[in-house]
Amino acid sequence: MFLSSLDFKSGADFGYNYGISAKHMSLPSREIVISPKTFGVIDLAEIIRFRELFYIFSWRDIKVRYKQTLLGVIWVIFQPLVTTLIFTVFFGNLAKIPSGDMPYPLFVLTGLVFWNYFSNSVTHAANSMVENESIIKKVYFPKIILPLSSLLTGFIDFLINLSLLFLFAIATGHIPNLKILYLLPFSLLVTVFSSAGLGLFLASINVKYRDVRYILPFFIQILLFISPVIYPLSILSPSHKIYMAFNPMSGAVEAARGIFSGTPPDFSLMIVSAFSSLLILFTGFIYFSKTERFFADIV
Amino acid sequence: MKPIIEIAKLSKKYRYGVSEPYYSLRDSLSNWITRPVKALLSSRKSGKGEFWALKDISFNVKKGEIIGIIGRNGAGKTTLLKVLSRITPPTEGKAVLRGRVASLLEVGTGFHPELTGRENIFLNGAILGMSRVEVRKKFDEIVEFAEIERFLDTPVKRYSSGMHMRLAFAVAAHLEAEILLIDEVLSVGDTAFQQKSLGKMENISRSGRTILFVSHNLGMVKKLCQKGIIIKGGYSSKLTAVDKLINRYQQSGQAFSASIRLDRHNLEFMNFRVNGISIKDEPEVYPENALEITAEYKGSGNKSYDLCLSFALRKKEDYTLMYYSHNHLENIRHMTGKKGNISLRFHLPHISPGKYTLEIQIWLDGHLSADGFELGDIVVASSPAFASNQSFAKFPAHLLIASQWRIS
C-alpha cells in the first residue's frame, strides 16, 4: 500500500513527532519521518538528545591522547611554557617587541593560552569528519556533535592553561583586576564562537576537498602572524587597528591582556571582534547544515 | 494499528562520479575552468552518469515482524538500511518509523584500538545510541556474553580478532530499540559463538522487536525471518513469505555470484572451481574422495591483508549446514596487490547424496568482509561403497560412517 499524504500530519515532516502516542497507546512515542526534506535542518532537540555522545567523543579523544605518554597531562602546560620561553628570548629580549605595561612573558603567555585554544579547536574540528569517517558512514547521529566536541576536548586543556596563566601572573605580581574580570568570559566566548564557526566550515569542506588537511597548518600559522599574539595592537596606527579587529582573535587576546594590565582595550575593537566572531559562527553553522546531509555519501 | 515501519516509494540516486570520493581543490578549480569549454564541445544530458541505488521501494512492516532482505552484492540492500537509519538522505519518497531505531551496519563501529575493552563498551554503546545508564545496567551481561572478563582492562588492540568481534557483537546485541536494522553482522567469531549469536538473535526476535535483516546467508534468513523481500538492481519484490521468497530467489538464477568483488579493499575473487571444474557447471563430487576448491584472486593497490577464507556446503532442500571449513591457522598472510591462486583441499566425508550449495565467507584482517556468498551448486554423487542411496532415503541421516562388521 502506498502512503497518501493524508496519512501524515504536516508537522511530522521534520524530524520527530511526539503527538502520536496518545492516540495509539501501544505504539512508542517517537515517530521518525524520513523524506528528502527531513535532512538538512539541524534540530536542536536532536542534539540535546544525543548530548551524551558529545561528552563521549571528548572523553575518548582525551583518553586516547594521554595513553602511552610518559608525561601525560604535563604535555598540556609544556607547550605554552616552552613557546613562551622561546618567544620571550627572541621577540621580547632580542627583537625588543614592546609589551605595554606588563612583562613580555606574561604578555605572550596570555596571548598563547587563547591562541592555542583557538588553533587546536579549529584544527581538530576541521579534521573531525574525516577522522571519524567510519562512524559517519555506519551510524546515525547529528554530525555537528563531532566538530563541537573537539571544542569541548580543547576546553579542558584551556582550563589547565588558564590556571597556569593566573598562577604565573600572580607569581610575577600582576594581580588580575577583578573589576574588569568580565573581559575573561568575553575573550572566551569570542574564541569559542570563532573557532566553532571556522571549525564547522573547514570540517565541511574537508569532507569534499582533501587539500584542506594540507593547507590547514599553513593557514593557522598565517593567522597567528596577523593576530596580536607576539606583538601588541598598539604598534599599529589607530586607523589600521580597526581592520585588525575583524580578526576576532585580536579582540579576544587584547581583552584578556586587559585583565592583567588593568586597562580594557578600545570598546570599538571589542564590538567589531564580537560581531565578527558571531558572523563566523553563523556562516560556519549554516554552511555545515547545508552540506552535512551528504557527508556519508562523499566522505 | 498503524504499521511500525511504512516505506513508500523510497528512492535514492547516486552519481557515478561519487564513487571516486576524494576531490582535490585543484581538480575542482580546473573543472570549473574547463567546464564551459566542455559544455560547448559536447552537449551531455544531465541525467547521464547517475543511477538509482534504490527505486520505488514500498512495503509496510508490522510490529514484531522480522523481515529478511536478500539480494546480490550491490543490489541496494545496504543503501536501504542506510536511508532508513538516516545516515544518508533519500532522493525521493518517504518512510515512517514508529519507535526507537538502532542500526547495526557494522560490528564494532567506532571501536578505538587504544582504549580498553571496558572503555570501548561505553564508547560503542554511546555511538549505537545507548545511554550511559543503559550501558552500565547491561555491562555485566555484555561482558559475560563476550567472554572477555579477564581482558576487560586490556587495550582492544591487543585482542585477538575473535575477541574483538565477540565484544563488538555483544554490545550490539544488547541494544534496546523497538526497531533494529541489521546488515550481515551475525556470523562473527568461531562456530560456537555463532550459535550463541544466532540464539541471541532469536531471543531478540521473540521479544517483540521489529527487525529488518539483510543477509547473503539464505540459511540464516530462513531461520530468523518470516517474511522478506528481494532487492535487485535497486528495485524490490513484494513482501513475501520467506520460503517462497528463497525459492524464487534461487530459481531466478541470480543467487550465485560469479565473482566476489570487495571494492573497498580492491580485491576480487573469481573463477571458483571444484576439482578443476567451474562451479557454474555444477561439478559432481564423490564422497570419500579428495576434494579441491580453487579460486583466483586479483588485487590492485598495495595494501596487504591477513586473509582467512571459509567454505561451507549447505544441503539444497533444507539448508542444513553439512560441511564447514574455518581455521585461523589457515590464514594466508600478506596477500598484496597482485594475482594469485588459492586452493583448499579436504577429504569429503560420506554425506548424503544430492545437491549442495557452496558458500564462502571472506575475512580480511579479522573483519568479516563477505558473508555467506553462494557460489554455486555441487552434486554429491551416491557412493559406490554403498550399493544405493537406500540408506539415506529411508532414514533421514546426513552422514554415513564406514564401519566394519565381524561375526565370530
UniProtKB/TrEMBL annotation, chain A:
<dbReference type="InterPro" id="IPR000412">
    <property type="entry name" value="ABC_2_transport"/>
</dbReference>
<feature type="transmembrane region" description="Helical">
    <location>
        <begin position="104"/>
        <end position="123"/>
    </location>
</feature>
<dbReference type="GO" id="GO:0043190">
    <property type="term" value="C:ATP-binding cassette (ABC) transporter complex"/>
</dbReference>
<keyword id="KW-0813">Transport</keyword>
<feature type="domain" description="ABC transmembrane type-2">
    <location>
        <begin position="71"/>
        <end position="291"/>
    </location>
</feature>
<feature type="transmembrane region" description="Helical">
    <location>
        <begin position="214"/>
        <end position="234"/>
    </location>
</feature>
<keyword id="KW-1133">Transmembrane helix</keyword>
<dbReference type="GO" id="GO:0015920">
    <property type="term" value="P:lipopolysaccharide transport"/>
</dbReference>
<keyword id="KW-1003">Cell membrane</keyword>
<dbReference type="GO" id="GO:0140359">
    <property type="term" value="F:ABC-type transporter activity"/>
</dbReference>
<feature type="transmembrane region" description="Helical">
    <location>
        <begin position="180"/>
        <end position="202"/>
    </location>
</feature>
<feature type="transmembrane region" description="Helical">
    <location>
        <begin position="144"/>
        <end position="168"/>
    </location>
</feature>
<comment type="similarity">
    <text>Belongs to the ABC-2 integral membrane protein family.</text>
</comment>
<protein>
    <recommendedName>
        <fullName>Transport permease protein</fullName>
    </recommendedName>
</protein>
<keyword id="KW-0997">Cell inner membrane</keyword>
<feature type="transmembrane region" description="Helical">
    <location>
        <begin position="70"/>
        <end position="92"/>
    </location>
</feature>
<dbReference type="InterPro" id="IPR013525">
    <property type="entry name" value="ABC2_TM"/>
</dbReference>
<keyword id="KW-0472">Membrane</keyword>
<feature type="transmembrane region" description="Helical">
    <location>
        <begin position="267"/>
        <end position="288"/>
    </location>
</feature>
<dbReference type="InterPro" id="IPR047817">
    <property type="entry name" value="ABC2_TM_bact-type"/>
</dbReference>
<keyword id="KW-0812">Transmembrane</keyword>
<dbReference type="Pfam" id="PF01061">
    <property type="entry name" value="ABC2_membrane"/>
</dbReference>
From TrEMBL, chain B:
<keyword id="KW-0547">Nucleotide-binding</keyword>
<dbReference type="InterPro" id="IPR003593">
    <property type="entry name" value="AAA+_ATPase"/>
</dbReference>
<dbReference type="GO" id="GO:0016887">
    <property type="term" value="F:ATP hydrolysis activity"/>
</dbReference>
<dbReference type="InterPro" id="IPR050683">
    <property type="entry name" value="Bact_Polysacc_Export_ATP-bd"/>
</dbReference>
<protein>
    <recommendedName>
        <fullName>ABC transporter domain-containing protein</fullName>
    </recommendedName>
</protein>
<dbReference type="GO" id="GO:0140359">
    <property type="term" value="F:ABC-type transporter activity"/>
</dbReference>
<keyword id="KW-0067">ATP-binding</keyword>
<dbReference type="InterPro" id="IPR003439">
    <property type="entry name" value="ABC_transporter-like_ATP-bd"/>
</dbReference>
<dbReference type="InterPro" id="IPR015860">
    <property type="entry name" value="ABC_transpr_TagH-like"/>
</dbReference>
<keyword id="KW-0813">Transport</keyword>
<dbReference type="InterPro" id="IPR027417">
    <property type="entry name" value="P-loop_NTPase"/>
</dbReference>
<dbReference type="GO" id="GO:0016020">
    <property type="term" value="C:membrane"/>
</dbReference>
<feature type="domain" description="ABC transporter">
    <location>
        <begin position="37"/>
        <end position="258"/>
    </location>
</feature>
<dbReference type="GO" id="GO:0005524">
    <property type="term" value="F:ATP binding"/>
</dbReference>
<comment type="similarity">
    <text>Belongs to the ABC transporter superfamily.</text>
</comment>
<dbReference type="Pfam" id="PF00005">
    <property type="entry name" value="ABC_tran"/>
</dbReference>
